[in-house]
Amino acid sequence: MGEIVDALPSGMDLVIPGRKGMLPHIVAGYRADLIVCYGFPWKIPAAALRSTKLGAINVHTSMLPKYRGPIPVNWAIRNGDKEIGVTVHWMESEFDSGGILAQEGGIELDDDVVPQLLWREVDRCIERLLPCALQKAAAGHPGTPQEEGLATYAGWMEPDFAQLDWNAGREEIHHQVRAFRFGSSGRSGPVGTVGDRRLQVLRTSLQPTDGIKVVCGDGPLWITESAPEVNSDS
Question: Which of 182, 148, 187, 226 lies closest to 76, judged by CA?
């Protein structure tokens, strides 16, 4: 925590609320003009959104209304998307549903997504979009309404996501491993039975290569990196 405080620009405060109910009081105390939110894991109470002069805007790593919710990039990888984008939008009571102030796509998702490199590209995109979005927010621009019929939700992965079912399609399994690897920064993977072993599968290939060949529901897949299953009871 001390390192974060030391890295703050002069005049900036670090505020860590103990619970969501305190947010409206904290924000109101600053008499802020605008909330700018990015990567905040809580659903901000409506009272906090109303406690500034202009309201609140959010930076979201998807091309809204696609992938509303907390982990849009993970779902884009899981679904085999080739790219993602960034949207800056007004915040409303529902997740990621407000008018769009600025938006840009074209951030490529490599087959082996390296989080540090991807977030660097995302940061560059935010640097391009945020000045325009702030100008529109200051002018009271309502933003472009989202098409509700196109909205999808990127919620937390289900518990079964940590288990591999070799009866599923090979591409589905490959993208499952990719998404899990991204979410854990390569430290762990979904678990599957290979022969008489239980393995964390860290990386796979759809093309023939050195590694363990497994047969999925619609064809072969090659495990190129794995580790023994970690027994939480041990």
Answer: 182
